[in-house]
Sequence to fold (147 residues):
Amino acid sequence: MSYDLYFYRRDPGQSWDDALDAVPVTRQPDLTAWGNIVTGTRDLLGEVRIVEYPPNWELDHEGTGISVNHWEGGWEMSVPYWTHGAEARRVVGLLYEVASVVERESGFECFDPQLGLPKAQVADLAAAVPVFDAVADQFGRRGTANA
Fold:
């Protein structure tokens, strides 16, 4: 299980509801954006592992579990529910910082399905912490740092 972020390319004036309901379009990979996202993510997180198997590219950060995927021209991110409380808030903050890099470099907009909001409308990242805490409670992992 993971906390996921998805990226959409909305047409001018297109609502989020319409963008979310649209059939995904397979696009050509954007390797320029990918390279810039790898660089920007390294600037934020440090060393990352890269797996390239065209038309898919994946970036993983071991310390946080943050993953950025460029699948057949689309973008998505995830982080496992390893943390809770203040540490979950810190990890979500980093996840959103990397998501800003993806938005800037790809031209796609980020949507957080757990909160049901586009990233631009999330006023308080602490709103994600109860989701992490609920998963920790569900699996009896609360109280352990990397459970």
